[in-house]
Amino acid sequence: MITIDAQNKVFGRVASAIARQLMGKESPTYRRHMVPDAQVKVINVSKISLRPGKALKTSYVRYSGYPGGLKHETMAHVIETKGMSEVLRKAVYGMLPGNRLRPVMMKNLILED
User: How crowded is residue 94: how many other Cβ atoms within 10 Å of its Cβ?
Assistant: First the structure.
């Protein structure tokens, strides 16, 4: 298990480091078609350094499939409702490859405040 302390670290750099560990690119036995055995545990997620304007400019979009079902949320709103761990989870999810291995890799991510 790999432990990353996110206190006073830049948000994007922490997210990319987590994604690289989850994909297994840091291990000498890296194979892109296999999920590594590495679990990543991130502590102090709520203390990540985030630029003040980034929370207001970044938005998340989801679509229900129905007319008028396009929803927009800012990062600040997601932090208020679900916490910083959900924002970090969304960032790491977007950095992983979009294939059948992504849900399996995301199960190896443990976030703690």
Answer: 11
What whole-number distance in Å separates Cα of residue 54 and Cα of residue 92? 17
d(CA 93, CA 101): 11
| Cα–Cα distance measured from residue 35 to residue 38, given in angstroms and rounded to the nearest whole number | 9
Amino acid at the residue 48: I
User: Which pTM value belongs to this model?
Assistant: 0.91
E strand or H helix at 82, and its extent?
helix 75-82
Q: How far apart are CA 101 and CA 113, in angstroms?
A: 26
How many helices (H) and strands (E) the chain has is answered by: 5, 5
Render pLDDT for 7-49 as a digit per residue (tens, 0 to 9).
Answer: 999 999 999 999 999 999 999 999 999 999 989 999 999 999 9
**What structural domains does the chain harbor?**
2-51+84-111 (3.90.1180.10)
Length in residues, the chain: 113
